[in-house]
What does this fold into?
Amino acid sequence: MNNQTVRSQGGYSLIELMVVLAILAILVTFAVLALNGSTRIIERQTIAKEFKVALERSRFDSVKRRPSTCADMSRVEITSATSFQYITDLNQNGTLEPASETRIIGFENRSEVEIVDDPAPTYPIIIRFDQRGNTSSGPCGTETPANTPTVFCEMPCTAATADGTNSNGVYVSPTGTVAFMIGLFAALVPAAFLVSRHGTSARKMGVPLVPFLALGSVVALFFGDAILDAYLRLF
It folds into this structure.
């Protein structure tokens, strides 16, 4: 009589496989939810950055051109809760031509983000810049101070419920142009030192800009108007 050796074969039971699949399904669900939330945050931040860039371009354009009339000042116009436009001297002829130099940014069909305020605003909301980079709003002839920050919030949202988790605010600083200029010039000092000490190899060395922008903001807070006036008198 032949003795047959029975070898045990390892494996997984059906219950174990079902438990593993259930865990994987839960992990995938959380991953999809997290990805969806990250996508919304990124889109909201992108819209706020587009608005910030529009403000910066308008301010620099006015400081560069030095417009003498309200109608010729570069500006950003919020036309609805989901759109804004900015008017700058695109063809560089020294004057604004709104019919051909208006860029429109709409985000109604690409996100659930809206501009919120309390009380509900009346559109359009105008943020214009004079030759010194200072802001004003309202119709020409009856200008009013610009109301900032502008808050971009994920719907459903109100000005009362907007916070750091569902919104981004863009604030217009009256001395922002001067702060940026001072920050850039201050950053040239360590850059020049690195070049003088390391020669061409200094081109690969990084200089952090944030501390110099902070320094520029402090200087601009106390001496911003005087510095900008002195700069504009050079032209």
